[in-house]
TrEMBL record:
Keywords: Membrane, Transmembrane, Transmembrane helix. It holds the Pfam family HupE_UreJ_2. The chain crosses the membrane at residues 20-36, 43-65, 71-90, 110-129, 149-169, 176-193. This is HupE/UreJ family protein. The keyword Transmembrane helix applies. It comes from Larkinella knui.
């Protein structure tokens, strides 16, 4: 049980680590167009991302698929940039909070496909932890569960911040979306430009 708990904590710490903020940026970009009242939509969206990254995390950790680590490290910020830029085209409803806008077409599919890429990024870290350990199924499950708890934590922070700004401080949803998505897009672009794969 102690090993399970250790890997769960490592998974949580990995995705919430400010030093490795690329996955955090992606979650923020996914959530930027939503508010706290839309938590069900966000939950479905995050589940799609989870399915994607759980699949490739397992396959890559078990060494059933092979890929270029440098290429994945480039593709991850590209997924962030695409997600953030797509937010600019989201039509914000006139109401700040109560009106439920339609789910942007293809957003679930986007989260699922991009999750596949992020899962390979997660596996790099997990494989370095496992080393030559013979039984990896339990650590794999615990690490993935820790990732999910960390992911939910990030989502709650973003939606709570959105609630405070939109409802209490009366910031326009359009402005919130543009600001947060613009910041994420800028940071993702910086990661792409400075990526060793391109240099």
């Amino acid at each position: 049980m102690s090993e399970f708990w250790a890997y769960l904590q490592l998974g949580f710490a990995h995705i919430t680590d400010p030093g490795g903020y690329d996955h955090v940026l992606f979650i923020v970009a996914l959530c930027a167009i939503y508010n706290l009242n839309q938590w069900k939509q966000v939950l479905i969206l995050i589940t799609a991302f989870t399915i994607g990254h759980s699949l490739t995390l397992a396959l890559a950790t078990l060494q059933l698929i092979d890929y270029s680590t440098d290429l994945i490290e480039l593709l991850i910020p590209i997924t962030i940039l695409i997600t953030a830029v797509s937010n600019f085209f989201f039509k914000v409803p006139k109401s700040r909070f109560n009106e439920q806008p339609k789910q942007p077409k293809g957003r679930y599919s986007l989260a699922l496909v991009f999750g596949l890429i992020h899962g390979m990024g997660f596996s790099n870290y997990l494989r370095s932890l496992l080393g030559q350990q013979s039984s990896i199924l339990k650590p794999l499950f615990a690490f993935n569960l820790g990732l999910e708890f960390g992911q939910i934590f990030i989502v709650l922070l973003v939606l709570t911040l959105a609630f405070v700004l939109l409802e209490l401080l009366k910031v326009r949803r359009h402005d919130w979306n543009l600001i947060i998505s613009g910041i994420v897009a800028g940071m993702a672009l910086s990661l792409i430009i400075n990526n060793p794969y391109l240099n």
